[in-house]
User: Fold these one by one.
Assistant:
Number 1:
Amino acid sequence: MSCIFCKIADAEIPAKVVYEDEYVLGFLDIKPINPGHTLVIPKNHFESLSDVSEETLARMASASKKIASVLKEALASKCEGINLHLADGKAAGQEVFHIHLHIIPRYTTDSFGLKFPPHYGKITTEEIDSVYRKLRNLLE
Ligand code: AMP
Ligand code: ZN
């Protein structure tokens, strides 16, 4: 298994681990957007949102809540906000194909953000409603 996050979970390669329980691991991102940027991974390998079990995802969310609140304390009043970010798939920016949640401390002045596309605000009512109807049918 050549997955880098599996290697971190198995302690085969080092990481700055800040949180660990039976199911998940939290460690500092090697290239942080801001200091304290943490990744939360399941200890078992799941590539994506469609693979991961609901229970494991819930455990990742629960660990992220704990880490986010401790991060705010650790960074004191300097931390103005937090983003939880999950890139699912290459088009969404996923580079490591072992599911992970980013916990990113944010500041009004940090210039980080998702860029809005030129078609933002121009999606037609027909397109919006077509997806809406499909979602309602599939999620019923
Ligand atoms: P993503 O683009 O959502 O797949 O994010 C992958 C993240 O993993 C990036 O922010 C990388 O900086 C981070 N990363 C890659 N390798 C390591 C590593 N060995 N230790 C800690 N973070 C890593
Ligand atoms: Zn893995």
Number 2:
Amino acid sequence: MGGHELAAAAAATLPEPPKENLYVVLGHVGTGTFGKVFKASHTISGRMVALKQIKMEGEKEGFPVTAMREVKLLQSLRHDNVVRLYEMMVSHGTVYMVIEYMDHDLSGVLQQKEFEFTDAHLKSFCRQMLSGLAYLHHKGVIHRDIKGSNILVNSRGELKLADFGLARVYQKRRKSDYTNRVITQWYRPPELLLGATVYGPEVDMWSAGCIMLELFTKHPVFQGVDELQQIYVIYKWMGTPTLEAWPGLTSLPWYELFKPTEPIPNRFREGFKKWLSPAGLDLAEQLLSWNPETRITAAQALEAPYFNQESPPAVTPVGMSALEGEWHEMESKRERDKRRRVED
Ligand code: ADP
Ligand code: MG
């Protein structure tokens, strides 16, 4: 994208020419693919925002295509569980996305020890995540990178999906051919690990299942060191898939390569029953269905007994406002390093 087009794109989202010093930077909260993410406040309204830098250095093609995709997608979305993109800004030659500020990300907030989440709070997080996904999928968008650092939480206990850098619009009727090198490995569904390039929103639902378990255990549950290991970690908990349950299995490109030498039994309920309630286990198991065709959709998941029949009902963790400090993956890493140094 050339300079003129960029200026036009910026002008389209800005009613007035960009004013410098419209925002005061208060700190650095994260590092993105295209630069840093800053916390800033709007000088006039005092509203907190995140400024996500899109650096063009080293980009031969000018404004990065994936960043453009993220901007365009976010502009078309508006939902309580999806971060709002307020505007685009250019300052000192660098482009910024001005996004609603979120105090924590999920991986950060699960690591802190100050505020303890109840089962009702975790149910609320789970429902908010699924509401965001149901909205995206309804709008024909697959997120393709659902994980703790891309799910943000604010001090009012609201959860919002963020980071649309890998998101794609999909054709509802016709499944298109995509790259399968998406979704961070620990959250990647089996069909992608087995090489599928034709897929749909079900890929996000597997990741959501991983997140649901992580909410309760506080740790990513399927931590493989490489792709082969990853599928074996899944085998270990979910058992090896059967052809009855997943008839499409044998036609996946890397099926032979990852084929288990012997069948492994499912240990899911046994392994997770100390963390989740029976209806919670039911839902997680339906999200982590091997067969993408039978995997529960976000809209169906919102109707699950876990939300509508089993107590406790979901409660928004409003008490989080008392939390001191802000927890993003960056702070929790720093905290971890600090602890490690102390322990060493
Ligand atoms: P990338 O595409 O490079 O992963 P992200 O959008 O995920 O970029 O941003 C990187 C990190 O910055 C996030 O994991 C989060 O910790 C922080 N961050 C991003 N957006 C916001 C926001 N709106 N409010 C607060 N922190 C944010
Ligand atoms: Mg991210």
